[in-house]
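[job 4471] stage=fold_predict status=RUNNING
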Amino acid sequence: MVYFHFWYKTMGDKTLDGNTSSEWKPELKYDFDPITSEDEIVTVDLGGTPIQCLKIGDALQNLKTAKLFPDYRKHIPSIRNMEMDDDDVIICAFAKSGTHWLWEMASMLGIGKADYHGKEKTSAMFEFIPAEALRVSPKPRIYNTHFAPQCLPKQAFDKKCKILFLQRNPKDVLVSLLPFLQGYNFIDSTIKWDEFISKYMELEVESSLLNWFYYTRQWYEFLKEGHDNIYCLSYEDMKDDPVTEISKLAKFLEVEANSELAKDIAVKCSFQNMKQAASSKQETFAINNKELAKKITNFTYRKGEVGDWKNYFTVAVNEKFNARFAKKMKGIDFKYRFSL
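[job 4471] inference complete, writing structure tokens
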């Protein structure tokens, strides 16, 4: 995850909305120790100029703008050793799978009112915030992350913390992932959809941020161990029947939520209402740059649809992806809905 400048981009013949009025120069916030011979550096090529990243386990830190985030060589161990309380909640999802959406839903259930959280979700995200700052945030504490299980706090499983694992069908994820990665300057803003998806289907780097197949397998293997504090959700199910899914979520979280509250939360957490509410939180982003916050809001909330992949996947690309999916997902019995 890297913030560098905003994007303007086309996906084949499709143009995605974006503000190109100015370029953002990063405000460096954190100390970042020099790279040593003991560090693992990997090159990520998803089209255009390859990006060099520091690799810590399966987490990547872009070297171009590394100081925007805590140094992962120290930060990830501190997250792993972070103290947790029994009533803490962690939302886990691959990027572009509905993390913002579920975070607001869970936050509303936590306070028993359909009121938006006062801050943006990066303020409670493991990748962005030092463990000591996360630890002193007010309750109810609902954290969120794109990390795989091996980077989560160890106490999350020693105690009674509740973990929400959210999935979305990978075709819609990838359509949204392209502008997301361009917005964070992980790949060139000039890269078109056809080049991106071709490169992506060759991706082998073990990364919880970039590699959906790797991330999904890590979670599948982890869930096989048996963890009764993990609740699995589907983006498509939430989209199809949000009131029912909110009620089921409330039951798992052990909070009161009558039908009226579930309906109110569903309305407040509709895509358009969420996008509008996000504009009021731009001063609460973990990255202290107001102009950037506006731009992040634009590329974070793209469409929120199920089945939009059909506008981008050609017949040939779809066949190739399906073959890749069958190979990479062999032995994994997760089920996905690719349309409603």
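[job 4471] summary: Residues 1-26 have pLDDT under 50 and may be disordered.
[job 4471] exit 0
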